[in-house]
Amino acid sequence: MVEMWMGQIVAQEYGADGDAEAGYGHVRKPGLDISHGVALYLDGISVSFDGFRALNQLTLAIDVGELRCIIGPNGAGKTTMMDVITGKTRPDSGQAWFGQTIDLLKLREAEVVAAGIGRKFQKPTVFEDLSVQDNLELALKTDKRARRTLFFRLSGEQRRRVEEVLELIHLHDQAARRAGDLSHGQKQWLEIGMLLMLNPKLLLLDEPVAGMTDAETERTAGLFTSLAGKHTLVVVEHDMEFVRRIAHKVTVLHEGSVLAEGSLEQVQANERVVEVYLGR
Amino acid sequence: MAVAPSSSNASSAHGARAQLQPPTAFLPPWGWATLLLFLLLICVAAPVLALAVPHGSNLHLSQYWVALAGKILCYAMVALAMDMVWGYAGILSLGHGLFFALGGYAMGMYLNRAMTAASGNLPDFMQFMQWTHFPWYWQGTEHFAYALFLALAVPGLLAFVFGFFAFRSRIKGVYFSIITQALTYAAMLLFFRNETGFGGNNGLTDFKVLLGFPVGTMAMSVALFVASGVALAGMFLFARWLVRSKFGRVLTAIRDAESRVMFCGYDPLWFKLGVWTASAVMCGLAGALYAPQVGIINPSEMSPANSIEIAIWTAIGGRGTLIGPIVGAVLVNASKSWLTVAMPEAWLYLLGGLFIVVTLFAPYGIVGLWRQWRLRHG
Amino acid sequence: MRRPGLVLRTLLGLTLLAVVHAAYALTPQEALAIAGGDTDSRIAALRQAVQHPDPQLATFLHKLLNDEVQIDGGMVQVQQGNDWINLATGQAVTPSANAEGVVNNNYVRKQLESARAALDLFSPSRAARLKAVRQMQDDPASVDRGLVEQALKIERDPEIRKRLQLLHAAVLLTSPDAAERLAAAKELAASNYPAVRTLLLSRLDHSDGQHTEIDPTVRAQIEKSLAAIDERLAWSERLGTLFSGISLGSILLLAALGLAVTYGLMGVINMAQGEFIMLGAYATYVMQGLFQRYLPAEVHYSLLAAVPFSFLVAGGVGMLVERTIIRRLYGRPLETLLATWGISLVLIQAVRSLFGPQNVQVDNPPWMSGGLHVMANLILPYNRMVIIAFTALVLLAMGLLIARTRLGLFVRAVTQNRAMASCVGVRTARVDMLAFGLGTGIAGLAGCALTQIGNVSPEMGTGYIVDCFMVVVLGGVGQLTGTVAAALGLGVVNTLLEGVAGAVLAKIAVLIAIILFIQKRPQGMFALKGRSVET
Questions:
Q1: Do strands A67-71 and A232-236 pair parallel, antiparallel, or not at all (unpaired)?
Q2: Per residue in C412-421, pLDDT tens?
Q3: CB contact under 8 A, B249 and A138
């Protein structure tokens, strides 16, 4: 399988696609080409920090519209993998492609976002000093260049979009509240809401249900399953119940590379997974 | 793109429609009233008391007070500029004194040229160095407009270049503060040299003529005072507009969670650089107004101690509030003027104590305390 | 009477002198000729007299140089205390109204001084002889050949002999005998004295179309010798620069080491670091005062007692500050920065109120003054060498403390993971206090050392803070090795640039270079790569 994808990528002319998202972001680059059904493709990524190999020849492919869960013990490289995809960490070797044409390793964080990747951190990070609606408004998909923000005013349609997401994340009666005053679970939801405002093709979600009540977790699961299909989701999660609830396909990372892949049942039946991860 | 299908479920489950809050007013009514009162005081009351009321009267405003108040207004502008970068963007500059001094030097150059044009003598320090003409970089400073342009452009350009490299390398927090301190320290050493051509230790002084009018008269002091007051009001309105814009909210967002801002698709570099440069330009203008009012501009304005004092004006008044730093600058400098004469020993204790007490007990300064008090009492 | 050998040798030397020059003692006529008359005749008489060194002459020259000689009716009188003594009779006299004090113009004075120095060549004290020969080597042109040859006859000290031989060669360079000149030029190749170099150069002079040195073989030899001297002088100059660089670097390092603990390990921005240096310096001053009052005989050793004292004073104040202020600000670096700046202002004013605003004087003990003469143009001052050694010791002690002791282990543990350290029973609050005390205590040690090379004033610390931060930041936060490399590197680079561009421009250039460097490598020279942290 890997060889086949490789061939496709090499055959694809970089930049042949034109600018599908003109006016969005200030760097002109080829638009997203997912015609071959692959949203994200990592090949042979290695990252080491002072001798410690965080990622070791990691190769991973995520299909368009897929909802993929990534599990693995602490230090397996889950967060580092997200850092590499979003341009925060540059790998020592390997390739990372978004669709067929976008070389993620050449982009800065903001450009990665402009290309259509959204990321939620492990620790919920919202703009504590701004109101909930300001948080969403900042995430809104518009021209993000500094000088455009000087005279920016919400249009009617954008306003409706903010309102829609407010309802979706159940914060409609909290619009004017300071984000820092929300509960932990509400902050998680707000951060997911900000991701939705960005309207990314690919969502990277790092432990999205940590600190949520059971009811909130349930609702989140419903939201994610409904997003899958239109969006591609990569969820890193420790909560096995949640994984069972949403996952079609699970990837187990161990010591920086893929240990097993398949449905949750298949993975849980894998002896090596049981050995290293489930600790039995 | 359409919202995910579950949105309808979610909203219908709760039955409530989200309602966005309308933006708050640019200034509340009492804000506009205060601003108007301030402008009346500066533009009408002070000139009348100083120029029209006769000398013997109790109501007469002496030139000493006019000059002192004008000087303090310049400090308030610097504090306001500092608040924009520190209070909103979270960038603590320990080098704002440099931008202020550069503005002052640009104006000082013009004032020296005007003196030379009137008297035919080169400034004393050039005669001392046995120079027979102005060095090349003094070219054109005999024109007021060009000198004013320099007063804004030089600090702005320096801030832009320095900021570009610093922010691009993601230098932030204390690191950035320390580097700005090193920058102003290096500049101070440079300006201390006689060969640099800005009067060395003594700086630029001996100002006689400004735009054809004699410097040092009551009328000139009042004019400069009014100009400073109007400039401060203008800067306040500009700062208020900037921090209320989406640009300003992105700045606050950068201060609180910079990586989240990046993952919202913004490049923090240009936001930081923009506010940083604007702040430096404001300092330059403040410096340009300061030099003729004080009658001298010298390298000690660039000392690290001076720059860090600006931070304490801002902190005492309350950072992130715009009005707080203005109050802080006025309070601290008024007490400095009084204490350094009345009890010189006590001044450093007080200033040092303020640094400690404010950071420990009132991180949001006077405005913060006042807001707390209002919350508690209705 | 310290060493019998020395006594014996001195006696031998004096006897020899007495035998050779028994007929010559300073006569009243000679004295009158030296003291009175026109400049030329006085100098001629002086030259004559010096040919026969005798202790009386030395005393007389001393009196002349002190303006304690007068001429009264053709008699020379010298002053002794409040009395005047007739030089011929040795009796106290009452000067008449005609008595006229001897006035020496500058030229005469200079000649008198070099004559006195020449006489010192025969002094029983080795130090005096060494000083005399050194002084003469600085100006070989005015040295009397006969005197040097006489001295060479009786000198036994190898170092002084070697110097005398070189001096002799320098004198011979103007001999009328070409063979002698050639030999002299050859011998002078071993000299390290800038004065000899000047002398050789002057022999090559032919600006008036006439060679000063007429013999071409001698000229060739002089050129060869010059080249040899130049090469050695250049080397010692390079060594000198390196030494100054290391010396400056060690001072920077000493000042920055404390910061490397508080900022590098604990992450506390202490803007008052310079003031803790100042406290250490004042502690040294206080210790000197205590010795002066209670142990005046041992005052030269007050500096040794001041080392632990300055550490304790600065460290103690540091711990107090940590307990009362810094503790409440952990995790808020910008606030810490401002609060510690406030602390620095309070400390400056407190010291000003206690000791006054002016500089105070901390004396160099005699065992630290002077320097090691490596070559004529390279003197390594003892105080600088002591500071370099002291820095190395402090560094070593600190390294051991951090790497080997329990406190060091705790500090590292708390730095890396406060919560975890606390969970395993480390009393983090106590560790913080001790670590901060250590950092400020080291600053106190730096202050103690700095009293030996600079002014002690309430503001002395403010000059160090920018430099210290540059060292720590450049070296990489939390990296002791980096701090050392950065300090020494900055010291050497600064000294090198100073030679090219002057002190101020050098400093500016270094600051700008650091600013640019940090743009490229924000983590410093020796940064560890780590897992990126969120937000």
A1: parallel
A2: 787 777 777 7
A3: yes
In a domain, C532, yes or no: no
Q: Are the C-beta atoms of residues C459 and C246 closer than 8 Å to each other?
A: no
Residue of C529, C531, C535 lying closest to A80 (CB–CB) = C531
Task: Note whether B197 and B141 are within 8 A (CB).
Answer: no
For residues C55 and C125, is the Cβ–Cβ distance under 8 A? Answer: no
Last residue of a domain, one of C198, C226, C253: C198
Gap between the Cα atoms of C464 and C337, Å rounded: 16
* B363/C335 touch (CB, cutoff 8 Å), yes or no: yes
Whether A4 has a pLDDT exceeding 50, the answer reads no
The residue segments making up the domain with residue C12 are: 4-198
The beta-carbon neighbor of A83 closest among C529, C532, C535 is C532
Distance from CA of C515 to the nearest CA of B (A): 7
**Where in the sequence is the domain holding B122, given as residue range(s)?**
61-303
Domain A2-276 coded CATH 3.20.20.70: no
B343 contacts in C (CB within 8 Å)?
none
In a domain, B1, yes or no: no
pTM of this structure: 0.76
pLDDT in tens, C211-256: 777 777 877 888 888 888 888 878 888 888 888 888 888 888 888 8
In a domain, B3, yes or no: no
CATH number at residue C341: 1.10.3470
Does C154 share its domain with C278?
A: no
Closest to C249 measured CA to CA, from C456, C474, C461 = C474
Q: Give the span between the Cα atoms of C363 and C357, in whole angstroms.
A: 19
Q: pLDDT tens digits, residue range B226-281? A: 999 999 999 999 999 999 888 998 999 998 888 888 888 888 889 999 999 999 99
Residue C535 is nearest to which of A50, A89, A125, comparing CB atoms?
A125
- Which residues have C-beta within 8 Å of that of residue A46, sequence separation ≥ 6? A53, A55, A56, A57, A58, A91, A92, A93, A94, A256
Task: Give rounded-to-5 percent helix, strand, coil for chain C.
Answer: 70, 5, 25
Structural domain count, chain C: 2
C365 in Cβ contact with C288 (< 8 Å):
no
Cα dihedral value C388, C393, C397, C402, nearest 10: 30
Interval B172-227: pLDDT, tens: 788 888 888 888 988 898 898 888 888 888 888 888 888 878 888 888 889 999 99
Q: What does each C-alpha distance from B122 to B125, B127, B130, C25 come to in angstroms?
A: 8, 6, 10, 68
Q: How far apart are CA C338 and CA B353, in angstroms?
A: 11
Q: Which helix (H) or strand (E) holds C46?
A: helix C39-50
Q: Nearest residue of B to residue A204 by CA position?
A: B263
Copy the structure tokens of residue B185: 């320290």
CB-closest option in A89, A122, A123 to C532 = A89
CA distance A138 to B258: 13
Per-residue pLDDT of C315-354, as tens digits, reads 999 999 999 988 888 878 888 888 998 999 999 999 999 9
**Sequence-separated contacts (24+) of C305-308 with Cβ below 8 Å:** C306/C448, C307/C445, C307/C448
Closest residue in A to B256 (Cα) is: A127
C→B contacts (Cβ < 8 Å), by residue, are 269, 271, 325, 328-329, 332-339, 341-346, 348-350, 352-353, 462, 465-466, 469-470, 473, 504-505, 507-508, 511-512, 514-516, 518-520, 522, 534-535
Query: What are the residues whose beta carbons fall under 8 Å from the beta carbon of B209, sequence distance 6 or more?
Result: B111, B114, B115, B117, B118, B215
Q: Say if C206 falls within a structural domain.
A: no
Is A128–B19 a contact, with Cβ atoms under 8 angstroms apart? no
Q: How many domains does chain B have?
A: 1
Domain-located, residue B16: no
Q: Give the model's confidence band at B12: pLDDT under 50 very low, under 70 low, under 90 confident, else very high.
A: very low
**Helices A156-168 and B6-14, interaxial angle, to 10°?**
70
